[in-house]
Amino acid sequence: MIEIREIEPTKANLRKFTKFQIDLYDGNDYYVPPLISDDVATLNPKVNPAFDFCEAKYFMAYRDGKPVGRIAGIINHQVNEQHDGATARFGFIDFIDDDKVSAALMNSVEDWAREKGMKKIIGPLGFTDLDHEGMLVEGFHELSTMATIYNYPYYSKHMKRLGYEKDSDWIEFVMDVPAEIPEKYNRIADIVKKKFGLKVLKYKNRKKIKEEYGRALFELINEAYDGLYEYSRLTDRQIDYYINIYLGLLNLDLVTLVVDKEDKLVGVGISMPSMSRALQKSKGKMLPFGWIHLLKGLKGKNDRVDLLLVAVKPDYQNKGVNALLFQDLIPYYNKYGYKYAESNPEMETNAKVQGQWEYFSNRQHRRRRSFRKSL
Q: Cβ atoms within 10 A of the Cβ of 251, count?
C-alpha cells in the first residue's frame, strides 16, 4: 500500500526530501546531484524570495515505511497574472518505477491544485527559470550538468500513462572548443564593435562587478528572456538574492560583458567549469569533505565548460553581439584546457539561439520536456 505524506518545509524535512533523489540515483554514472543545501534553500519559504509570489506543497510517497517517491506542487501567481491563467506546476519529482507510486504522487498534487482553483498543471518546472526544469526524454547516457535535471527513462512513460501530453521541449548541445576563434566570428565581432560602438568589459574583482553590473546583469536577463516559455520575471528581492549566491562563485575570466557607448549593458556571457564529476564525488554534501571535491572542480583540471548563460538585449539580438562574447571567451577556454562546451537547455523552437552554434562542431545530445494536463 502506498502512503502519501505531506512534508512540512522544515530544514530537516527538506533535507530528507532532497536526499531521496540522491539515494535513488546512487551508482548512476550520468546523474549529477544538487548541493543539498542549495535545494533546501530553494524549497524553504523562509529563504527563497520566490515565495513572495509563489506557494508550494510537498509530498513524499512511502511503502512499508520506506520512501519511494517525492513531488512538489507549485503555483507561480506572478506568471498566472501575466498570462491571465490558472496553472499549477509540478516539480522536484522522483519515483521508483512503479505505476501506483507515480499515480499517487501526481494525484496528490493535482488534488491540491484543484482545491486552489487551478485549471491546468504543467511540469517539471521550478519556482522560476533559474530552477531546474524539464524531464529528460533523450540523452540518458550523457553526463548531466549541475544546471539540469537527470531522470530515468521510465519517467516519461509514467507521465503519458497518467494522461499528460507534451507542452514544450528544450534541446541541448555539446560543442568542440575550437583552437582558434572561427574567422566568421572574428569578422562579425569587429563589424559589430565599429557599427554600434560596443566594447567588451572584463573584471578581476568580484566586489566591483557586483557593484557596477550585478543588478544590471539580472535586469538584462529579465529583458532578454521575457516572453519565453513560462518565464517568471525576477523581482528586486530575487535579484539581490541571486547576486549574493552566484557572482561570488564565478571565475571572472569566464564572464564577459558587452556594453554600449554609455557603458550600459547590452550582452552577457557566463561560463563555468563543469562541476558534474565534483558534485558526484561530493554526493551533494559540503561537509565533511565534499568541499574539497567542489574546490577541485572549480580550480583543477577540467576538459568541459558549461555555458550557464547567454543574454542579449532585445534591441541587439540578431546583430552579432554573440560573436563579441565568444571572441572574448574562446581564448580563455583554450587557456584553461577546455575541449568541450555544454549549452544550457534551449527551447526547440528558438532558432535564434541555436544559430549561434552553427560555426562550431556541435552535437544535439539531450532533449527534455514539460508536460501538461487539464484539471
A: 15
pTM for the model stands at 0.93
Dist. CA 168–CA 77, nearest whole Å: 20
Radius of gyration of the chain (CA): 21
Mean pLDDT of 100-126: 98
Please say whether the beta carbons of 265 and 309 come within 8 A. no
- CA pair distance 33, 290, nearest whole angstrom: 12
Helix 321-335, helix 183-196: angle, nearest 10: 130
The per-residue DSSP string of 177-246 comes to PPSS--HHHHHHHHHHHHHHT-EEE--S-HHHHIIIIIHHHHHHHHHHHTTSTT--PPPHHHHHHHHHHH
Instruction: Tell me which of 250 and 107 has the higher pLDDT.
Output: 107
pLDDT tens track for 189-231: 899 999 999 999 999 988 899 999 999 999 999 999 888 889 9
The dihedral through the CA atoms of 135, 174, 209, 193 has a sign that is: negative
- From CA 88, how far away is CA 54, in angstroms rounded? 10
Tell me how far apart the alpha carbons of residues 374 and 362 are, in angstroms, rounded to a whole number: 37
The span from the CA of 9 to the CA of 74, in Å, is 13
Rounded Cα–Cα distance for residues 332 and 93 (Å): 37
Q: Above 70 in pLDDT, residue 297?
A: no
| 115 backbone dihedrals φ, ψ, rounded to 5° | -60, -30
Alpha-helix residue ranges (DSSP H) falling in the chain: 11-24, 36-43, 77-83, 99-115, 154-161, 183-196, 206-209, 215-225, 236-246, 276-282, 290-299, 321-335, 351-355
> Of 72-86, 105-119, 239-253, where does mean pLDDT reach its minimum?
239-253
DSSP state, residue 358: T
Q: What local confidence, expressed as pLDDT, does residue 294 receive? A: 60
